[in-house]
Amino acid sequence: MPIPSSPETRLRLMTGLFLTRGDEVLLLYKTSGRVVKEVWCPAAGGHVEPEELKDPLNCVLRELKEETGLTPDCLTGLSLRYLTVRAGDGELRQNFYYFASPDPDRFPDDGSLTSSEGVLRWFCAEELTDLPMPHSARAVLDHWLREGRHTDSLYGGIAVPEGVRFTELTRF
Q: Whose CA is closest to 87, among 95, 79, 96?
């Protein structure tokens, strides 16, 4: 007989894509959503579908296409940089955060880029500290600004009330 799931064992898997250009970051102001809304979020992302469980990269690329119309050939340096886990709201939330830069030859930089999820806007690093953001996304962006953008490392993080405790993940 299967054991019934409890709120502590439900898992929500999500992805996010931060696009960076020098000291600027493209963010999305989500006007609606199942989990977060009326906050600044990565430029694209969303829930991992059942067929994407073993490949969150497919999820983030699907979300990029659905939300902005962009395809991977518009990006350079796309890589998974952060994994976070947070307990809250009766579930465990695991986020896969990717970072990439726009390909200057293919990325629409004429103001025509839009999102079906809300408003996209480039921010310089100094503008990012006071923006309302989801807990884990805020911690990832803050860590990336301080440390992550200077490395190629993959970081894992456990969310705590005061932020996220990150550690560099090494392969062994």
A: 95
Q: Which domains does the chain have, with CATH numbers?
A: 7-169 (3.90.79.10)
Please give the full DSSP string across 98-164, using - where no structure is assigned.
EEEEE-TTTS--SS---BTTEEEEEEEGGGSTTS---HHHHHHHHHHHHTGGG---EEEEEEETTEE
**Residue-wise pLDDT tens digits, 59-84:** 999 999 999 999 999 999 999 999 99
What value does the mean pLDDT take over residues 131-139? 95
CA neighbor of 140 nearest in space, from 72, 106, 93, 73 = 93
CB 122 within 8 A of CB 21: yes
Task: Check whether 112 has a pLDDT greater than 90.
Answer: no
Q: What is the arithmetic mean of pLDDT over 114-134?
A: 93
CB atoms within 10 A of CB 154: 15
Could you say which DSSP state residue 34 is in? Answer: S
Q: Which value, in Å, is the radius of gyration of the alpha carbons in the chain?
A: 16
Coil/strand/helix, residue 69: coil
- pLDDT tens digits, residue range 49-64? 999 999 999 999 999 9
Q: Which residues 6+ apart lie within 8 Å of 128 measured at CB?
A: 25, 141, 145
